[in-house]
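Notes to self after the Tuesday call (sharing in case useful).
The group wants a holo model before anyone commits to mutagenesis around the pocket. I volunteered. Ligand is thymidine-5'-triphosphate. Logging inputs and output together so the record is complete.
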Amino acid sequence: MTETQEALLLASASPRRRQILTRLHLPFTVAVAPIDEDQVQQHYHGPAEGLAQWTAAHKALATSTLPEAENRIVVTADTTVLLDDEILGKPRDEEHARELLRSLRGRWHRVVTGVVVSRKISGELTLYGASRSTPVLMRSYTDEEIDAYIASGDPMDKAGAYGIQNPEFQPTERINGCYLNVVGLPLCTLAELLEKFGIHTTETICTDPAGVCCPWSEQCLK
Ligand SMILES: Cc1cn([C@H]2C[C@H](O)[C@@H](COP(=O)(O)OP(=O)(O)OP(=O)(O)O)O2)c(=O)[nH]c1=O
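Result:
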């Protein structure tokens, strides 16, 4: 294990991202990016596909102000759900969750995760970012299933009000590409970005832009 590998900091409150990152077998610690995501996103006026990477970059900027980020390689990410060109964020309340789940029912949409890897040394911040988009088809779940899922509380902290990994609701019918991208941290993309700071993972890195060959996709979170 090198000194660089010990220096990884995941700036995320998401338990899914923590769990996924352990699969790279790189030691890391966790902090929460000191950012008001809603406020930051109000200043974004670019294409919908770019919002996730832009937000992940802002999480990196905010994290770089934390003393524990100095000299560390910081990983940040953001996941957005796009229905046509409409951005579906996390639900405001249960009624909003119901609305989002109904609008997604039986429809193809895209889940975009932006990943940023950054490091601040002596006040100078270096930042690399990328994003991946995964088309997802929802199954035609019933209103009763929606109500039961909302009652479980699971949708409330998730973009688009659903977790593809939920074992009871199992909201999706098909997915074209990277499963871990939908859950919130595409490991192939992250591994490529970590390479730029000289951090190598022992696993094969996926070279398929669609992420279909992702070496981790068979071990998805179920
Ligand atoms: C679409 C989808 C999203 N999600 C989650 C991933 C993210 O945690 C969340 C999207 O919100 P994010 O703002 O990307 O992440 P977060 O607020 O949970 O954590 P942090 O910003 O501190 O890193 O939705 C799933 O777990 N499963 C899914 O199928």
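Two things stood out.
Confidence is low (pLDDT under 50) at residues 1-5, 207-213, 218-222.
The chain has one domain: 3-219.
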